[in-house]
Amino acid sequence: MRTAPPVSSGFGIALGLALGLTATVLSGAAGARSVPIISLVAMVAVVDAIAMVTTARATLATAAVCWALDVGFVLDGNGEPAFTPQAGHAALVLGLCALSALGFASTLRAAHERDHDPGQVSIPPPRQGDSIPHPSG
Prior knowledge:
Blueprint: H1 9-29, H2 37-53, H3 56-76, H4 85-115
Helix pairs in contact: 1-2, 1-3, 2-3, 2-4, 3-4
């Protein structure tokens, strides 16, 4: 049996989009146009966070959206994805990040389920009463 993530897939995709947009704006304000690694690190953090709280589908969609935001607004600056070697590097980093974060989240959920599985509760046997000496004996 698999423990379901706390956030559904549809809401996870919307949350990933919102966090990706926020990370793009904040990294742009921090100077990501001149140092693009700032944006990529922010996008990796977004993908990792989404992987921990939602489904694989939402995580992969978030990685794709973060890649498009990074390539379109940080690397290119015009909002149009530019397929350059830097864009390929960003795609590789975000894709591997998404897969590894999903594996890590899945492992954590399985360990949590194993530790908190109500089917493994052991009920102790009934206690035997102490033998009380009989007054006649």
